[in-house]
Amino acid sequence: MIQSGTPLTIGHILENNARRFGDDPALVCGDQTRTHRELFQNGCRLATALERLGMRKQDRMAVLSMNNLEFIEAYVAGWTAGFVVATVNFRLALPEIVWILNDIAPRVLLIEDQYAALIPALREQVRTIEAVVVIGAGAPDAIAYSELLADVPDGRPIARAAEDDVASLIYTSGTTGRPKGCIMGQREMAFNTQVLVPSMGNNPGDSFLCVMPLFHIGGMAIALGILANGGTVHVHRQFDAAEVVASLEANRITHTLLAPTMVHMVLQTPGVEQRDYSALRMIIYSAAPMPTTVLRKGMSIFGQVFLQMLG
């Protein structure tokens, strides 16, 4: 937690982590890792690079990507420098993506290379976009993420987030109409993070398996709660029941977040009963009612580790 008198922002929480847990792993995604110090430093370098592109405090940056470490570094950059990080559901069709981006009005679009074919249409139809940054392979009329950071030294961005800044815009699913951009404030998100730590009972060295999409609030918020107390987030690109079962055992996962449908799929995985889940202390579930039969079977395999968390 941040010291008394320090502004209650997510950036200050992550900066504090870099001091307290600098050499401890913060993120693991496949064969890529980031320590808490590297995560904060990379976020600051990205923020500085974005300032060079013309981004200023409370300007908006949109992210269109599946789960990866760069996605989280974009969050860190925005939350540290006071940019507004706005996320887009990669499962949407092009007209829906265009509508959300026009609602966001971003100056910079951070996009994963598998969606690079959309860039010409997005540039044409979203006139606020001044620069496109591509995670992975480069694309015409865009800047590769690695090149953007190549000559940026370690250090702090010029701007720093304040408590009353907007931190993120997270969009609803749009089941009853157009998706709505939910305004997430720095103070509110930082306070929520401090509440999550005792609620989850997480300690330094604990590990969170993140399979929920980072464009939505659930996985991102729980991951931040784990990071805030020196834990490690194991990031999966997307949900795969067999990979969840394997990771729970192999990585000694202490916490994870799953929708009830995901829990059901995990419980149907062959050999799920034969794994070692002795490190697992909490399976958080949300987004839909949990069927009693699924909950009982889950408790018979994983133990009394289930926590419903909403709001």
Strand and helix map with partners:
Layout: H1 10-20, E1 25-29, E2 32-35, H2 36-52, E3 60-64, H3 69-81, E4 84-88, H4 94-104, E5 108-112, H5 119-125, E6 131-135, E7 143-144, H6 145-149, E8 166-171, E9 181-185, H7 186-200, E10 207-210, H8 217-227, E11 232-235, H9 241-250, E12 255-258, H10 260-267, E13 282-285, H11 292-302, E14 306-308
Parallel strand pairs: 1-11, 3-4, 3-5, 4-8, 5-6, 6-7, 10-11, 10-12, 12-13, 13-14
Antiparallel strand pairs: 1-2, 8-9
Helix pairs in contact: 1-2, 1-3, 2-3, 7-8, 9-10, 10-11
**Element string (H = helix, E = strand):** HEEHEHEHEHEEHEEHEHEHEHEHE
How can the largest sheet be summarized?
7 strands, mixed
Radius of gyration: 19 Å
Q: In what order do the strands lie side by side in the largest sheet?
A: 2-1-11-10-12-13-14
Overall geometry comes to globular
Describe this structure in words.
There is one protein chain. By secondary structure, this protein is of the alpha/beta class. The chain is 38% helix and 20% strand. It is built from 11 helices and 14 strands. A 7-stranded mixed β-sheet has the order 2-1-11-10-12-13-14, with helices on both faces. The protein has a 7-stranded mixed β-sheet with strand order 7-6-5-3-4-8-9, sandwiched between helices. Helix 10 links the parallel strand 12 (255-258) and strand 13. Helix 1 crosses helix 2, helix 9 (241-250) crosses helix 10 and helix 10 (260-267) crosses helix 11. It starts with 9 loop residues before the first helix and ends with a strand. 45% of the residues are buried. The mean pLDDT is 94.
